[in-house]
Amino acid sequence: MELLRVKDLCLGYENEIVVKDLNFTIACGDYFCIVGENGSGKSTLVKTLLGLEKQISGEIELLNGLKRNEIGYLPQKTEVNSDFPSSVYEIVLSGFVGSMGFRPFYTKKEKEKAMETMELLGIEDLKDKSYMKLSGGQQQRVLLARALVSSKKLLIVDEPVTGLDVNATFEMYGLIRHLNHNLGVTIVMISHDKVAVDEYANHVLTLGKEVSFR
Amino acid sequence: MMSELSLYFSYPFVRYAFICGVLISMCAALLGVTLVLRRYSFMGDGLSHVAFGALAVSAVLSVTNDLLIVIPVTMITAILLLGLTEKKKIKGDSALAMMSVSAVAVGYILLNVFSTSANISGDVCSSLFGSTSILTLTKQDAVFAFVMTVVVGVLFVLIYNKVFTITFDRNFSKATGVNVGLANLILSVIISIVVVMSMRLVGALLTSAVIIFPALCSMRLFSSFRNVTISSVVIGMISSAFGIVLSILLSTPVGATIVVVDLLIYIAVTVIKK
Ligand SMILES: Nc1ncnc2c1ncn2[C@@H]1O[C@H](COP(=O)(O)OP(=O)(O)O)[C@@H](O)[C@H]1O
Ligand SMILES: [Mg+2]
Predict the structure, then answer these.
(1) B85 vs B77, B88, B91, B165, CA distance in Å?
(2) How much is the CA Rg of chain B, to the nearest whole Å?
(3) Cβ atoms within 10 Å of A169's Cβ, excluding its own
(4) ipTM
């Protein structure tokens, strides 16, 4: 079952083209990796898929009832404000806000779901801890929990292990793999890590001078 | 001293002034956390200068209720600023800096050229630094401050979770379908009400102090967004209550006294947390 189809997509900023002629599809259950050197447009591509940037031309079709706000997102580390007074629980809960419409407060059910997600990712003990004071790996897990709370269908993770030590990297890959393999979450992951990509991905999109899709 | 104080508080206008001052400071402190975290600390400052310009215009036009001009002008400025910086059309801080100094310059010229008041420098001084005493406030002013505080408080609580989500991570919010534009619009409305009210309390030059000081103190004390916000309101309340009482006892200017109390609290918090 296909979730997303990209046709002749051309990306960039203010008519400065970054990537052109992209064609690929993402299907339910995929572990889809995007690779390419720095500045090749990986983040731009996922931001365009998420509707944060406008494409220059081409089409992005969401298929089989997938909605824009049903895509969970773990942004690249450099784009998250890590110097922010907030508890872990507050951040995880904020994953629901996009689907709340005009309702101002979280429901009991949402709070329970947030707790379950934190347990799933092994961060339930950090619930009331300050996000600022966590290690890099813990912070990434909190953001992963927030992304999962917002959607269990399709998850886009942008360089999730950048800046993490070997153990934290291993754990992070393990968690994402678990979500994909055991819970059926479709994963789109940007990564530099050749080994991880070869091991986990069933599709790889390479950006840069040569664009390829397999 | 206590008997002196209770004598003062037996006058209704002292009570009105006290109530207004405390309510306004609480509103300002409530917003402060969000503004500081968004790196918009300059906004209170800039908007109050624009409000000063608007105040000058309404003085020249001899409008009886100057709020009818000042609030809409400030509100439009706030909406434009949050909207334009959102679209990355302009850099918010430089645009606001430009607007605010121009507003002050034009306002001051207007006042000098057209004003019918005999005491221009006194008028200007009180809009820049707040009245030397806020004891001219009436029951109506107190009721107005109360209504505005309720409006600001209720609106803020309604958009609180959205404001948190957007302030922490704007891209994630947009991607997951948070209505960022609407939340920012409501936030701009609240900010402008608060800026105009604070300006009457402490004056245009000191407005940003009552907005950011309590937030900065609270961020040193607490680590969840909710606790920081609550603590900020409490600190705003305490500093204004002390500031107003001190200013009555020592006959010092109200606005400046509140800000000095804020500063002392900030220093105390910094020392304790070291
Ligand atoms: N907001 C922006 N405005 C203009 N150009 C941008 C913006 N963001 C990224 N770029 C440019 O687009 C190109 C691709 O960036 P990016 O998608 O972040 O690359 P990657 O994630 O693959 O490292 C870079 O040349 C970068 O300078
Ligand atoms: Mg990137």
Answers:
(1) 12, 5, 6, 18
(2) 19
(3) 19
(4) 0.93
